[in-house]
From TrEMBL:
Gene3D superfamilies: Carbohydrate binding type-21 domain (2.60.40.2440)
GO biological process, one term: regulation of glycogen biosynthetic process
A Pfam entry, by short name: CBM_21
CBM21 domain sequence ranges: 67-177
Molecular function GO labels: glycogen binding; protein phosphatase 1 binding
Highest taxon of source: Eukaryota
Lineage: Eukaryota, Metazoa, Spiralia, Gnathifera, Rotifera
InterPro entries the record matches: CBM21_dom (IPR005036), CBM21_dom_sf (IPR038175), PP1_regulatory_subunit_3 (IPR050782)
GO cellular component, one term: protein phosphatase type 1 complex
Name the UniProt record assigns to this protein: CBM21 domain-containing protein
Length: 181
């Protein structure tokens, strides 16, 4: 499923709106008229075009009735959308401690190496004692096909109460495939 054609700043609210149906966040920036400006064209020597890639998520499906799973596992990838070369997501965690750290562990070489991407606190749900965190994964631009990853694997981690809790798609890892535009 691909998100509606909106600006990137509205994708996370769109994801949340998709999950909860009735939530509404701000105006759709796609409805705001744009200002047309003229620019002078300056000829420059031809350059090698930068290849453009898309990120695609094939194995993610939004779950229903997530609260019991969050209480049991403490952390869950709630929503994942891709737009061009960026993936946007929300992580829902059990609010089991005030001090907590939520991040994505991302690998482009089958877990030989990895990096952590911090997620930012977005919303607290006091009625079910959970919090939502958001994250963004950006694919770097490259002209070298050999350096361009074909897919990314990732898992979600909550660090709280001197413990780590993981959501790795029930052992299958979450996958973002890379395809050329």
């Amino acid at each position: 499923m691909s998100p509606p054609d909106q600006t990137t700043s509205t994708l996370i609210p769109e994801c949340v709106r998709h999950q909860f149906g009735q939530l509404r966040f701000g105006k759709n920036l796609a409805d705001v008229p744009s200002i047309i400006t003229r620019r002078a064209t300056i000829s420059s020597p031809p350059s090698t075009p930068v290849k453009q890639y898309n990120l695609l998520s094939k194995n993610f499906t939004s779950r229903t009735n997530i609260i019991p799973t969050i209480y049991e596992n403490k952390v869950l990838l709630e929503c994942l959308h891709t737009k061009d070369s960026t993936a946007y997501g929300t992580i829902r965690v059990h609010n089991c401690a005030f001090d907590k750290n939520v991040f994505i562990r991302l690998s482009q070489d089958e877990w030989n190496t990895s990096i952590n991407i911090e997620a930012r606190h977005s919303m607290n749900y006091s009625h079910d004692n959970t919090d939502t965190f958001t994250f963004e994964i950006n694919l770097p631009k490259s002209n070298n096909d050999k350096l361009e990853p074909k897919r990314f694997l990732f898992a979600v981690c909550l660090q709280a109460m001197w413990q780590e809790f993981w959501d790795n798609n029930q052992g299958w890892n979450y996958v973002l495939d890379v395809s050329e535009k």
